[in-house]
Specification:
By secondary structure, the protein is of the alpha+beta class. It contains ten helices and ten strands.
Length: about 425
Amino acid sequence: MAESEVVSKHIEEQVTEIKDIMDVDQNDAAMPQDEEHEDVFGDADDATDDELMCEPCEERDSKALTDTMKPSPSEVASHNRTHNPYRSWCSVCVRAKGKEAPHFRRKKRTKGGLPKWGMDYATLGEAEDEKDCITILVQKDEVSGALFGDRCQVKGPKDEWMGRRVLRNIESTGRRDIAVVTDGEPALVAAQVKLIDGRAGRTMPLNPPAYNPETNGVIEKGVQDFSGQLRALKIALEGRIGEKLHMHDAIMEWMIPHAGFIITRFQVGHDGKTPWERLVGKPWSRPIIEFGEQVLGKMARARQSRRPGGPKRKMMARWVEGTWVGQVPRTGEHILITKGDRAVRVRTAKRVPEDERWRADVIRSITATPRTPTRNGEDSEIKAPRAGDEAGERRPPADQRDREPAVVPQPEV
């Protein structure tokens, strides 16, 4: 018999022997069911598998801190001579060089969570003296990245105009239910509470741990972007007019919201979209003009006189000269500061020859601000002037206008 056949026969015998042993073990393990024990736990025939099975509960994984593992004694002794590089198992290194836990940026927001609306105060100026600085309330919509900003007269909830402005900014993004995120500054927390009271939608307050503003990374990055854009606009206008601008100049109060306007509509993110495109699904299509440029604005058509034979006012100027300071976010209308020192909004604007576009004296003479767009401060909203309103000035109310006496028809004799 060949050697290979002997080996194969030997292997088959071993396999058969192992199978016989396994059959014996299984027969020993099988216990015959005793009739006396059939109904110990009830009627087994009536119970279903679903009733006897306990479904496992869902478990939520918890995060754990990294374990600190000590090396060998010789490595510890070698490290103690220099304490370099940093080692997490060395108490001296931790006390001397330990850092805060990193702030990781989530790739996407958890489903079901409220969109965050961040707010923070930014104090900006070119001098160390606080009198030469201004305070700006910067706001950011975390989901879209839209930025807003306006100058504050006073921190906290006492600035009612700022409160209305924030509510309008939130409304412009279409958010109803939001989470308002601020740091622990008392004035900002008070403004947060006032904002929550003034909203109809669900509003949840969120605040980072005490003395750790870096946790609110969304608005911190927004303040950086906002400050950089505002600084660029200021330097550009100073170069155009050949004069230095101060933070307390009225023109700066128009420049502040315009900085957020530009970032929201023209700053492209990693997804290839601007914040405005994330909000409405399409890019901003209205033409834009360089901030501070002198332009001509087309006034709305004049109201026709209701009196028979009244003046038609057809010889009145249809265009008004003004300084371009931005656009109305909701309508896209141009905002101009006219020679009468009044802020007006027009649908159509035209540029003037290049040698007439930049005038330092006009920029310096501006006193109207977003808070008081008229020279006398009577109006708080920017109006659309009509042809015939001299230099864009508002016409007096109907009950204050000089009217001609009514002509009463006389009966024929």
